[in-house]
Automatic annotation (TrEMBL):
Signal peptide: none annotated. InterPro entries: BFN_sf, Bi_nuclease_dom. Residues 7-138 form the BFN domain. GO terms for molecular function: nuclease activity. SUPFAM superfamilies: Hypothetical protein TM0160. It comes from the Bacteria. This is BFN domain-containing protein. Pfam families: BFN_dom.
């Protein structure tokens, strides 16, 4: 497992539908800090996260519900998910799971990882190097600042956001 000094605990601060580009932006919030990390994700994954966070139930299990159910049924514990890197405007994530006392690291998309994390009550972490590769965005304090932040996000495209390093 990763050294906890290089990863920061986070939670999903907000998930915003961007209908003009058929995507969502998941905003992750650094728990013991002030930084926010926006991640552009697909509509299906965004819907999966948003529906679960809003406690909406489908009559039949959706893909992430099915996977979480299988993991639970066979005794796999999702220990955490880590947003692990940012390369060429693409975020990477790792699922840390445990089965029968043995730990495994699984490469995954951040969107799928977040959808699984909300279903398994698993903690979310962000590698410090991911924050270093992005412009610093600080947590809004007031409702007005939150609305201004959401408005600014609607004008951004993913390629406008990343540092070119």
């Amino acid at each position: 497992m990763k050294d906890t000094k290089t990863i920061k605990k986070a939670k999903i601060f907000s998930i915003i539908l961007m209908p003009q580009v058929h995507q969502y932006v998941a905003i992750l919030e650094e728990i013991d800090g002030t930084r926010l990390l926006p991640i552009w994700i697909g509509v299906n994954e965004g819907n999966a996260i948003a529906m679960h966070m809003e406690k909406q139930k489908m009559p039949r299990p959706m893909t992430h519900d099915l996977l979480a159910g299988i993991l639970n049924k066979v005794g796999v514990k999702v220990e955490k998910i880590v947003i692990s890197d940012l390369k060429e405007n693409t975020y990477y994530a790792t699922l840390y799971i445990k089965l029968d006392g043995k730990s495994y690291e699984i490469d995954a998309r951040p969107s799928d990882s977040m959808a699984i994390a909300v279903r398994t009550d698993s903690p979310i972490f962000i590698e410090e190097k991911v924050f270093e590769k992005c412009p610093v965005i600080r947590k809004p304090i007031t409702d007005q600042e939150i609305e201004e932040f959401k408005t600014k996000l609607k004008d951004l495209k993913p390629e406008d956001f990343f540092n070119k390093t």
